Amino acid sequence: MLNLILDKRNEKDPIIYPYFFLNPERVGITGMITWILALLAGFIVMGYIIMIIDHLLGKMLK
After folding, report:
1. Annotated domain spans of the chain
2. How many contiguous H segments (helices) and E segments (strands) does the chain have?
3. pLDDT digits (tens, 9 = 90+) for 7-19
4. What's the pTM value of the predicted model, to 2 decimals?
5. SS3 per-residue string spanning 36-62
6. CB-based contacts of 20, cutoff 8 Å, min separation 6
7. Phi/psi of residue 7, nearest 5 degrees
8. Is 27 exposed, middle or buried (0-12, 13-18, 19+ CB in 10 A)?
9. What residue ranges of the chain have pLDDT lower than 50?
């Protein structure tokens, strides 16, 4: 019942994904999980790089 209320799209309307890696029909479930984990790892690495740069610049300015 709740599914019928929340799902307003027509059966003929395609499901549109904002990013290709979120489309399980295109990349598969394992591909989707792989992409999400790779992006997560990339953001974590970028965060650590920014922290290291900030730490080094802070030492240089003292």
Report:
1. 2-61
2. 2, 0
3. 566 667 678 889 9
4. 0.69
5. HHHHHHHHHHHHHHHHHHHHHHHHHHC
6. 26, 27
7. -95, 95
8. middle
9. 1-2, 4-5
